[in-house]
Fold this sequence. Notes:
Radius of gyration: 20 Å
Number of strands: 12
Helix content: 25-40%
Oligomer: single chain
Strand content: 25-35%
Amino acid sequence: MNRHLKQLAGVGFAALLGGWSVSAMAADVSKSPEVEETGKLTVANTIDFAPFEYLDADGKPTGIIIELAGEVAKLVDAELDVQRTPFPSMIPGLAAGRFKIAWETFSANPDRLKQVDFVMFIKAGIAASTSPEKKDEFTGELPLCGKRVGVSAGSASDFLVDKLTAECTEKGLEPIDKSVFNSSTDIIQAVLADRVDARMDDATASSYFEVTSKGQLVVLPTLYDVAPLGLAIAKDDKPTADMMVSALSALFENGTYKSILEKYGMGAYAIKEPYFVGDMEALRAE
């Protein structure tokens, strides 16, 4: 995922998260030795990538990942302790044993899998957004053909639109009229002012804007370059992997997972079940 990260020193947020302390009604989910010994579920997280993690108006961590982590803590009868950690430090931190779980939206690749394993819990991709009035104009197998589409310069969306344009022309359809902007905000304003018909951006960010803007733009249903995303754990740490897969499985089964995603407008990015990835062959097409 693309993100702009602040270089922040790691600092514990257990005090802010006291509300996540669990009841005696914890479900029957396996615990790692560390959780059993400390009574804490410690998670490294940037707290800097809405809607997955951010500080609310009261300065407390919230978001999809924070809420899911809180529910996992309840299931393992532990206190959630979020350690604020810069994203580039997470995989090295896991490899060095500084923490057991780095919960972000990691994509799996061969280089990362040399150092860590993953538990996949969501999917994402690239999506187009348009005004509610124009939504029904986007139809067919290639709905963007012949449309004016705004992208951020040099982004994955920029290159994707070039690829889609080639597909349009190969099928005898009108090419996409691409406009390049310096920021997502500029693209949003261009759509609202009818200078372009749609914007292409990260699907999760687009869905979050749909919710926070109260529907000024709506996300079209087609997802491009879809890939599973997961939390990271140290290589070959089976007890932690088993704990996270079993806990997340319980949240998938009881509806908590889907409810949290839908709260943030992310229901379209749910996967069927959480699963462990120790090598590239384990990745599933969702």
